[in-house]
Structures are given as structure tokens and as C-alpha cells.
Amino acid sequence: MKDPQDVGDTPPEEFRKQLHELADWIADFRGNIESLRVAPNEKTGPVLAQLPTQPPEDGEPFGKILSDVDRLIVPGMVHWSHPMFLGYFGWTITAPGILGEILSAPLNVNAMTWRTCPAATELETVVIDWLRQWLGLPDDFGGVVYDTASVGVMHALAVAREQIAPSTRKLGLTNRDLPRFRIYTSNQAHSSAEKTAIALGIGEENVIRVQSDEEFRMDVGSLGKTIAQDQQRGFQPMAVVATVGTTSAASVDPIPEIAKICREQKIWLHIDGAYGGGFAMLPEYRWISGGWGMADSIVINPHKTLFVPLDFSVLYVRDLERLRRVFTLVPEYLRGDTVEAEKNYMDYGIQLGRRFRALKAWVIWRSLGRAGIVARLREQIRLANLLTHVIKTDNPETIEARQSVRSRFELAAPVSMGVVCFRWVGSARRGVPTNEEQLDKLNSELVERINASGRAYLTQTTLRGRTVMRIGFGNVLTTEEHLREAWQLIRETADALSPA
Ligand SMILES: Cc1ncc(COP(=O)(O)O)c(C=O)c1O
After folding, report:
1. pLDDT tens figures, 427-443
2. Which of 80, 89, 150, 153, when mutated, tests ligand 1's pocket best, judged by the most ligand atoms within 8 Å of its CB?
3. How many structural domains comprise the chain?
């Protein structure tokens, strides 16, 4: 028990010892990550059940807390940094990313205004511009770092709303003679469009989901028709949210054609590049940035694709001043700290206090360099293509053991970036269930069983109404060997599940 009279900090020598202990803990965790289950296999509540419900009255030693992390927390986690974690966008932690995150802890600054931490503000401006250059975005785009893409799109569309309904910042939306505003996005787009509509008072029913084509890209013809019909009915189109790298299949909407419609109709174009945008760093993927120069705003999540630890999302707005005008508000108590500003990032959103997120981006991006980032993205693409090849060539005809139950799989979407969607479609010996609903259930159960095994973690999604399995590559620790191990596990589990 600690001395309750002690009102200061840990003595420096003791703190140094604890830091060394923590450094060893982190190195061991990282070194042994592969020996852990990827996910626990327990019903809800095992962590809760082991923790006291009462808050601590007296202080406890760090060593005891750290051993409880090992005993209670680590086994209750899904290990997103495990090389067999193949879910979502497979984001990754790296050693330099960990160092960058640790570095910001002792600094503990609030990057709300330039004066409250000049280095944090200026470094944020620098890393935002590095990323802009890497992505080939025109220099009339300025940016701001938020925690997530969902927060980014909400801020972007607040500007769109102000443009279409001036003075909303001052007067709000109620008791004004305003039409119903519409936001258009594809049926593959992320649900953050609806969250934005909820937060901005647009209403989630005013987010119109436009059909997508056979490759899961927004159908531009349908977009044009939907907008025209809405206009005839008296609705006012406010924004289109187009996606580069959709959540399920990483498909890329036809931005140049969408941008043309937006320009002609004076509709705000927001590009959700949360996952896929980062791939524009690759010369062979540069095509995905076609039309970006005509957008009004773009979100990129370097915490998904560009190796920055969670959380770090950048919103770029063409003519960033438009964003500032919507959100700048200086309370009296901050007036003294907002003069002579290079920039006061509190002016670019609803958040006042802000973490020094730029530091970890600066550390990781300097550590890897453009070349290191590009090489790692290419490796993710290589693994995704390799898995695609495995799925396509995993043909029962080639198997000697013809008596064995041999499951069959099909690709469910064109493979894009680090994402592969596929579906179990039956077994060679036991036959293919003709009932698609039955197959949906089996695909879903397959994912559940694999995740419950603790040996790998994948996700399921729905494409064209059918349940499919989905693997995302993104972890720097995931190798070809892991891919083969995962495929073996998928096969075995499918064979065991095959209906007799
Ligand atoms: C395409 C896309 N956009 C936006 C988001 C939301 O990201 P965030 O969690 O940063 O809000 C996601 C999340 O996976 C996504 O896949």
C-alpha cells in the first residue's frame, strides 16, 4: 500500500525502474505475440467477473497492476497486432509506432492553440502536408487531424451544410424555411454517412444509398437519376460521399464521373479514403486518386493503412478556411493564447483539447520513409493476390485423396488492395447445398468457429445479399506462412462443417 500522505509523483529512481520493467514487458509482449490466442473464446463478462466492482481506496504498486494486465487483461483481448489477426483492415502496430506513442505520454500537451504548444501545432501542419504530398493532393487542400474518419466526415459535411444553408452555424436548422437536404452514398459505403446525418440534423433517412455495379462501385447513372428525382420532389442535394476502398470489398467508386456530377450540380463531394486513400502512395495505384482535385473534402486514416497507431485520421478540405469559419469560436479565457497564431487547431472542429497525435506520425513516417511504407503496402497486396490465387486454384479435381471431404470456395468480389472476400460453396464429396440461405449460415458459422479456435481471426460481411468471409491483410508481422496456416484452418473447419 502506498503512503496516503504522499501527494507528489513516484520518486525518479523508482520511476526509472518501472520504465525499464515496462520496456521489458512491451518487448516480451511483442516478441511472444504469436504464442497468444488471437481472440478469447468466452461469453461476455469474464474480465468483469474478475475485477473488483469498487474503485480502489488506496494506491497500489505498479508491479501489481502490471501483473494484473498479464493475468486479466491480455487473455481477455482480441489481439489486433497478432499476425493471424486478419479481420477488418488488418491494421498494424510496429516498433517505431509503439515508440512514437510512448513518446507523447510524458509530454502530455494540449495542442488546442499554437500558443499552448507551438511544436505540436507546427508538427501537425508538417505531417499533414507530408501526407498531402505523398498522396499527390493539390496544395489548395489543407488538413486537420482528428481521431477517426467518422468525425472527419461529420466536420466536412457541417461545412457542406453551411454552404447550402448559410447561417446554420448561427441560427440552426429549425423554424427556417429550408428544404430537406439529401446526402448520397453507395450501398457499399460506411455507416458514418448516416451518423453524420444524425449529428448534423439532416436525418438518417436523408442519406440515400445509391446502387453499386457488379464490382461494388457506385453506379453513376443511378446517382444522376436519384439526384434528378429528388430535385423534382423538392429535396435539395447537399453532398455525395464517394468511397476509395469500401469497408467490405475495398472497391473504388468512379470518382472522376461522380465529381463531374457534383461540379455541375454544385454538390459537395466528400471522398471517404479512410482505408483505400493511402494506397495512392503507390505509383501502380495512383489511378485511385483520379478526380480527387475536384473534391471538396477527403478523409484518410493513416491508422488503418499508413502505419500510424490508432488514432490518427486526417480530414483535408479544399480551401480549409471554409472549415475554420464554421467552427472558430474563441472563449474569453483563451483569448490570450490565440494571438499571433500560425494556426489554432481548436478552430477546425468541435474538439477543444487535442492530443499531440502528430508526434507518433512523425516518428513512424520518419522511421519507415516513403520507400518503407510503399514496400509494406505492396507486401499486403502481394499476400492478398496470393490468397486469391490459392482460392482460385484450390480445385477438388487436383486432389489425390478423392475420398476426403473437400470444401470448395469462390471469390465473392474482385480483390482490391489488401482485402479478399470469398465464400464457401459446398464440398466435393458431400455435395453443394443448393439452398443459399443454408450456405449463408454455414459461412457465418465457419467464421465463428475459426475465431473461437483462437488460431486466427477473420470477419464476415454481406455482398449482394449473401454472407461471405473476408480477410484483410495489413499487419507487418503477417507472412506467407501465416497465410498458408490460415488457409489450412479455413479448409479443415469447412470440411468439418460440411453437411452430410
Ligand atoms: C471506408 C470506411 N470509412 C470510414 C470508416 C470509419 O472509420 P473510423 O473508425 O475512423 O471512424 C471505416 C471503418 O472501418 C471504413 O471502412
Report:
1. 766 666 668 999 999 99
2. 150
3. 2
